[in-house]
Design brief:
single chain; 500 residues; 16 helices; binds zinc ion
Length: 500
């Protein structure tokens, strides 16, 4: 590592009056958010912007942070986040800033606030600690147009109405269109509906991001669908939370990546994001893509091929909150049923609960992936990291995804060097959702920064204790203001709306 002192040298030659800054972060090892090695340098912040990188020994500043021995990186960018709701309740963003995240991208899996113009205005009126950008959600606009009679293909007139709604969100500054094609109501849409909506995007230089139509049984077909959209519409397309979530797909990461590289060679701008765990969290119904919830053979297939009775943990189950935190195997033993019958029964009770008009929950954490595949998919050149988390769920990713990358995959497993991992959380993430002037430490970029201890940083959240705060994140700045320091959130709500 070299001491970066070119500017000091120039001042020595031409003479400089000592400049002043709002904050100087002194002597950290600075990783710039590309894949470059770290340099020891001072970083000067003026207002919300990075004003200087180099030797600031003679400069004045209102605040000086001694950062010797620590790493300074661009603030992490969560390209697939569900923290939006949690930020309304807690604008200081504990779950987000405590893991070093400074920008979240919401409106994922086809679900977004409607209309985005109003949502963005509410973020301006009631700011939060981090920057927020959003996609426009296909399921949200399909629901607005098609309503409760959604278990069918849309008519052309309905698609035309959806197109108008998408234009409205794109004009408001949405990054693009998101789909959640394993969820209601998007699962009932024809491929042509999604393709037609995607054709709205090029005029806005918008993007497409997708929770694929299948991450297990119909995975290859689902992968082809997103490639086709990228090819025909000529827009950047991103696979959300990339995974191979079924025993039959395990070991096939190379084949999947070959397919994507082939598409890229043909000019398709396809990329992916991924959260660093072998288990996911979603609704219990997502286990049944054909919606045959009473089919015992299907339940047996799910428990053998997709996950297991031990691998399913209920995270929010209103019909019987005592079951939260218990596995399907445990619940089946308690009720003296087979796991297959118990799975069917749990969904039946959920239906009954919902018929009463209650909000009944029904989410699970399920182990479905293989660690070797996770590593291969995350090492793909075009995979950036995300959390897919929120501040209330049982999946630990909501509090620990980014710190887990640094502890588990950098320090313990050595899957990445530290600059590679940082690039995938910052510069690459910014590029793959189309954010400018963030995700890199560069003069003129916004001062979104995270200072951490490379040796101590680690996630503490687990499935049983999902809201434990990470260790080793020393300080976090969003637009030049400190939002996390001394193990606590501050009252700064300096986040901005990210418009496309
Ligand atoms: Zn998703």
């Amino acid at each position: 590592m070299i001491r970066f002192s070119l500017f000091g040298f120039i001042c020595l030659v031409i003479g400089c009056t000592s400049p002043s800054y709002d904050t100087i972060i002194r002597g950290a090892t600075v990783y710039d958010g590309n894949v470059n090695d770290g340099i020891i340098a001072d970083v000067g912040i003026r207002s919300d912007t990075i004003a200087f990188i180099g030797d600031l020994s003679n400069a004045k500043s209102k605040t000086i942070v001694d950062a010797k021995g620590l790493v300074l990186a661009p603030g992490f960018i969560d390209t697939h986040s569900h923290h939006g709701g949690g930020l309304e309740e807690d604008p200081s963003g504990l779950a987000v800033v405590s893991q070093g995240v400074t920008t979240i991208i919401v409106g994922q899996d086809g679900g977004s606030e409607w209309p985005l113009k109003k949502y963005f205005q509410s973020l301006i009126d009631h700011p939060v600690a981090v920057n927020v950008g959003s996609y426009s959600g296909h399921n949200t606009i399909r629901d607005l147009v098609v309503g409760t009679d959604f278990k069918r293909k849309s008519t052309q007139a309905e698609i035309d109405s959806m197109i108008l709604l998408l234009h409205e969100d794109m004009k408001a500054g949405a990054l693009g269109l998101s789909t959640g094609l394993e969820y209601d109501p998007g699962i009932y849409s024809a491929k042509d509906e999604v393709l037609q909506l995607s054709k709205v995007l090029p005029a806005y230089q918008g993007r497409y991001i997708s929770h694929l139509r299948s991450e297990d049984r119909y995975f290859w077909d689902a992968l082809q669908e997103i490639i086709t959209i990228g090819k025909e519409v000529k827009i950047p397309v991103q696979i959300s939370h990339f995974k191979l979530a079924m025993r039959g797909l395990w070991g096939k990461a190379d084949s999947a990546l070959l397919l994507l590289d082939h598409a890229r060679n043909e000019g398709v701008n396809i990329t992916a994001d991924l959260y660093p765990y072998t288990y996911w969290s979603s609704t219990i119904r997502v286990l049944f893509p054909d919606r045959n919830f009473t089919d015992e053979k299907e339940a047996a297939f799910i428990l053998k091929e997709v996950t297991s009775a031990e691998g399913i943990i209920l995270s929010k189950y209103e019909p019987n909150p005592d079951y939260n935190g218990k596995s399907l195997a445990e619940i089946a033993a308690l009720e003296k049923r087979t796991p297959e019958k118990m799975l069917i029964e749990l969904i039946k009770r959920l239906d009954e609960c919902e018929k009463k008009g209650d909000d009944c929950g029904g989410s699970i954490v399920a182990t479905s992936m293989d660690e070797n595949d996770v590593k291969k998919l995350m090492q793909w050149k075009y995979t950036n990291f995300c959390s897919d988390g929120n501040s209330g769920g049982r999946h630990p990713r909501g509090f620990g995804a980014f710190t887990r990358i640094l502890s588990h995959y950098v320090r313990e497993e050595k899957t990445f060097s530290i600059p590679e991992a940082i690039f995938k959380m910052t510069g690459l993430a910014a590029d793959q959702v189309g954010i400018k002037k963030r995700g890199r430490i560069a003069i003129g970029h916004y001062a979104d920064l995270v200072l951490f201890n490379e040796q101590l940083v680690r996630d503490e959240a687990t499935v049983q204790n999902p809201h434990q705060v990470s260790k080793g994140i020393e300080r976090v700045w969003v637009n030049g203001q400190v939002v996390w320091a001394d193990g606590k959130t501050t009252n700064q709500r300096s986040g901005k709306v990210i418009y496309r």
